[in-house]
Amino acid sequence: xxxxxxxxxxxxxxxxxxxxxxxxxxxxxxxxxxxxxxxxxxxxxxxxxxxxxxxxxxxxxxxxxxxxxxxxxxxxxxxxxxxxxxxxxxxxxxxxxxxxxxxxxxxxxxxxxxxxxxxxxxxxxxxxxxxxxxxxxxxxxxxxxxxxxxxxxxxxxxxxxxxxxxxxxxxxxxxxxxxxxxxxxxxxxxxxxxxxxxxxxxxxxxxxxx
Length: 210
Fold this sequence. Notes:
Layout: H1 3-15, H2 20-31, H3 39-51, E1 56-60, H4 66-74, E2 80-85, H5 88-100, E3 108-112, H6 115-118, E4 127-132, H7 139-149, E5 150-159, H8 175-189, E6 193-198, E7 204-209
Parallel strand pairs: 1-2, 1-4, 2-3, 4-5
Antiparallel strand pairs: 5-7, 6-7
C-alpha cells in the first residue's frame, strides 16, 4: 500500500470525530479482545442509516456498542436498534455506552443469543437496515435472514469482507475467507439487490433490496 493511500485512510478515519462515549466503548472492546468497526466504517453506517431514514435496525454482533452508537446517531430520533450478541457481558458495556451517549433506554433492544437462533424470531419485512458483524462463517446464512427481515428499499451491510486482504489473496485460504468470497459472488449476482463494496475499514459490503 502506498503512503498516500495510508494517509487517505487515516484522514477518512479522522473525518467524523468520535465523542468520549464512543472512545470509551472502543477501549472496553480492546480490553475484551474484540474487533470494533473503524471510525470511517462507523461514519458510513451512520450515513447509511440516515439515507434509509431508519426507524428499525437489526444488528448482528453488539460487541461493546461502537457500531450501535454510530447506527443510532444516523437513525430517526424515534428509531429502535435491535442488537444481538451471544455474550451478555459485552451487551452490558454497550448499554453503558449508549446511556453515556445520551440515548434513552427504549432506543435499543438487547437480545442475547446466537444470531441464527434469534433472527428467525424477528418480524418479516420489519427492518430498514440490517448490519452484520458476527461470525464470518455464518455470513451467507445472515444474508438469507436479512432478505426476509428487510422491507423493500431496505439495506443490508456486512463488515470485514476484506479479511485483512485475504479475500483477494490468490493463495490457499481458510473456510472463513471462502465463505466471504461466496457472499460477494452471491450479492453481485442477485437481481433483487443493488450491491456496492465500500473500501472503508476492513471492507463494508452493502446492498439495497429492490
